[in-house]
Amino acid sequence: MSPARKTSRSANAYRCAECGWTTAKWVGRCGECQQWGTLEEVGAGGTAPRTSASRSVETPARPIAEVDASVARFAPTGLGEFDRVLGGGLVPGAVILMAGEPGVGKSTLLLDVAATFARGDAGDGGARGTVGARGGSGARGDAEPSGARGSGSHEVLYVTGEESAAQVKLRADRIGAVADTLYLAAETDLGAALAHIEKVQPGLLILDSVQTLASGEVEGSAGGVTQVREVAASIIAEAKRRNMTTLLVGHVTKEGTIAGPRLLEHLVDVVCQFEGDKNSRIRMLRAVKNRYGPTDEVGCFDLLEDGIEGVTDPSGLFVSRTPHPVAGTCLTITMEGRRPLLAEVQALLDESSTAQPRRATAGLDSQRTAMLLAVLQRRAGFNVGKLDCYLSTVGGVRLSEPAADLATVMALASAAEDKPLPRRLVVFGEVGLAGEVRAVPGIRQRIAEVARLGFTHVMVPSSPAGVGDVPEGVTVKEVASVVDAVDTLFPARSAKG
């Protein structure tokens, strides 16, 4: 082997911490994932590992049957919708990352959680801070004066890097989130934040936000890949060592993804996405990742001037209240996690003034809408291909599951016929390219929700096993295709055909 080749194999290289791309020379930007500041110097392949086994360990390994799992039980926060998404409450030592667009209400929600946890108001089982579907507010725990310490109070540390302590105090006074054991620190230095943790010894830590803290021992500016990785690793290590529940606030990019390295989502235990339209008060909290509970649960909140409240029964918030039936509207039942929600699809068809008809959607997938238009024209004989099509949902809700297909098709058919559907009718089912209506999960649960809300007719996909026991006062119509649905709702059209 030549000396030159031996030198090249033992020379150091640089590897991207995000995607693993390697290069012989250092560059500021990764040539594969285009991230800045992610290249780290590593040894060439084939070298021996530099980390050796420790001579002693603090906590020896023991049989799994001897591990005490009681220390990792859920602790309710007092906000029922928040506990629903987490799977039951806060787990000691868990690290939760909450992301959302600016102004959606992340800081308001977490400040409310911090005050409730600090006062020890979680024992009410989540009854505090809930509103019903019709907007009636529930109790906000005003029986205890603001700032009073409950019998089950806990130390909570709220570290803010985006606002001053006075600004956070103003918001806390406005929403009634003041407690004696809620400590506030405005810091942008990671070392200072760790010192506050050492002094307060909190049971709950809230860091707002992880992109604003920076360590003086690591190169790069706050929010960079290297700094975010260092801040997250240090905070997570403290949380696990102290058995301290930690809530991290994360920024999002313009594409809607969590800013920073993808490693951040892998390190934390729970990742929650806080969503909402700025023109609406309704906010939805979804669990994207959850090591302690389901990832299909959704929490609904109402953002008010004096704080944020959970909505225990959101059905009806996404439905218009027109005094008379309107053509082009259809009600459906969508499953948000394991919760059925009533939603409304609205369609408007008009003659196009251009050679290329316009397709506009809000709250629905545009590509799936184009497919449903083609199915309606080809399979059911509606001439809608040359018409401008506008589709929207009510209340800013986003319908992403295929169960809303049949309601979308019926709304389009109603708009094309200019005839309203029955007011007490709810429609759901998945539509295929052949015009067939496929079964969807949770048919019985959806029918039960229809009966609970007072509707009398429901159109569902046909199934060999049937729909089971039907609640009293509800008439179920099973359809196998879009043609069957059109013939049922528009008998005059089928008679003409």
UniProtKB/TrEMBL annotation:
Annotated spans, Disordered: 124-153
Residues bound to ATP: 100-107
Span list, region Lon-protease-like: 388-497
SMART domains, alphabetized: AAA
Classification via PANTHER family: DNA REPAIR PROTEIN RADA, DNA REPAIR PROTEIN RADA-LIKE PROTEIN
Family annotation (HAMAP family): RadA_bact
Function: Plays a role in repairing double-strand DNA breaks, probably involving stabilizing or processing branched DNA or blocked replication forks.
Protein's recorded name: DNA repair protein RadA
Upper classification of the organism: Bacteria, Bacillati, Actinomycetota, Actinomycetes, Micrococcales
Gene: radA
